User: Which sequence fits this backbone?
């Protein structure tokens, strides 16, 4: 079966510090991968998606970047965090055999920028 | 402009009764629809989906209805249980190769004992 991991679960960072959140998927190959952010009291905002190694598409221009160094690894980064980067970050994958569109989410990372 | 709308931010239902969560969409190219359930501080969990070639899909206590002419879908939970209390997100796909989903803003369901 497929599983998706995210770490860390919680992160408190000062403004201006760098960020690296990691997501890995097991049990599938060549998945589509996604990064979302859920700000307090708001819906899910798609930040980045990737259809393959090294292929990154950005949905919202901002202070963040993403990379996909391996087939099942997706990394969200920032060189200098802003207060507005606080939120709940979710990684997801899709491309299952039964339905390619269904996305499966990781447990999320809560980021607080102070 | 929101392509997927969940106009009710919250819904309160008595345990054992039916919960009906609604979702409207504007893009006629959407051909696959999904419902997710989310508890606080956790990732959304896939619940149930429906293809545009169907008008109903049932899985246990959960049934999703699709009305293509009205561009409307709904999730019915019968009977509702306190453990169903969560935020429910509606999502839609146009079948593109990147597999992007468009999410609604969610409806918070509270099931009272």
Assistant:
């Amino acid at each position: 079966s497929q599983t998706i991991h995210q770490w860390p679960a919680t992160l408190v960072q000062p403004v201006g510090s760098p960020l690296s959140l990691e997501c890995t998927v097991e049990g599938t190959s060549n998945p589509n991968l996604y990064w979302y952010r859920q700000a307090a009291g708001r819906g899910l905002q798609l930040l980045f998606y990737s259809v393959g190694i090294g292929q990154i598409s950005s949905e919202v221009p901002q202070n963040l970047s993403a990379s996909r160094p391996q087939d099942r690894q997706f990394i969200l980064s920032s060189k200098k965090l802003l207060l507005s980067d606080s939120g709940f970050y979710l990684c997801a994958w899709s491309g299952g055999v039964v339905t390619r569109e269904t996305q499966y989410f990781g447990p999320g990372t809560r980021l607080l920028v102070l | 402009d929101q392509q997927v709308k969940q106009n009710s931010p919250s819904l309160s239902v008595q345990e054992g009764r039916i919960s009906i969560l609604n979702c409207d969409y504007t893009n006629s190219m959407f051909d696959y629809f999904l419902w997710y359930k989310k508890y606080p501080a956790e990732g959304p969990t896939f619940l149930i989906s429906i293809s545009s070639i169907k008008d109903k899909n049932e899985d246990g206590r959960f049934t999703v209805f699709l009305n293509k002419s009205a561009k409307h879908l709904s999730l019915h939970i019968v009977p509702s249980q306190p453990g169903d209390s969560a935020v429910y997100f509606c999502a839609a796909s146009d079948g593109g190769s990147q597999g992007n989903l468009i999410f609604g803003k969610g409806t918070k369901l509270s099931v009272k004992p």
Summary: The radius of gyration of chain A is 14 Å. The mean pLDDT of chain A is 91. Chain A touches chain B through 26 residues (CB under 8 Å).
